[in-house]
Amino acid sequence: MKKQTSLTLVAGLALLLAGCGNSTAPSKTTHKAESSIKTEQVKSKQAASSTESSIASSTDSTNTDQSVSVEGQSTAESSKKATRQTQTQQFSTKAQAASYVTDQGYQTSQETQGLPVVNLGHGITGTLDSGAGQSYLHWNEGNWSFTVRASAVNGQDPTNTAKEIVNQLETIYLPAPQNQGSGTFDIATGNYQLTWQKNNQVYSVTGNSPQDVIQKAVNQGNN
Q1: Percentages (nearest 5) of helix, strand, coil residues in the chain
Q2: pLDDT digit string (tens) for 160-204?
Q3: Which parts of 25-120 fold into alpha helices (H)?
Q4: With contact defined as beta carbons under 8 Å apart, do 102 and 180 qualify?
Q5: Calpha distance 6→95 (Å, rounded)
Q6: For residue 12, what is the enclosing H or E element?
Q7: pTM across the whole model
Q8: Which of 12, 160, 171, 217 could bond to 194 as cystine, CB 3.0-4.6 Å?
């Protein structure tokens, strides 16, 4: 009887220990589930990081494209401006082309006879015509006729500008007009233009200063 009771106690104790072991030790299935969850979380983070990188790369690319577009637009505008400053006109005859140049301010020495003479240096003299608050200093070099206009009301004097132009033309040679060329340098308004004829074509350039327009005419003549 005592032996049977002892066996019963031992069996009960074994069952109790087995129950405790099952409640505290995680099963292999539980380990696998937790591992799977952690793996999915890592993959999710990696995917999110990859997406953010793609978005940032796309944004940088867009900004670069926009910069290129703006730069291209700026270049196009500069090109259009340069085109407006150099013009070529075709006429039916040489006579029509010459008449157009005359209308731009071409004058002969005979037209300015009797006016006060101004020494412009390098053996060149000009004539000064003043009136109504304006001053016009005119001279000829070869087939070119030049006029500098100034505002006497604003205290402007065309002489210094004319001397600077004459001095510049000693080292820089303008295109040789076939018949005639006209240069108008209006320091009162800041408009400077050179126009010359070649056969039945007329070339015109404008600039921001006498030096600027002369250089542009030289470049055009070399093309």
Answers
A1: 55, 25, 20
A2: 999 999 999 999 999 999 889 999 999 999 999 999 999 999 999
A3: 28-85, 94-103
A4: yes
A5: 142
A6: helix 2-24
A7: 0.62
A8: 217
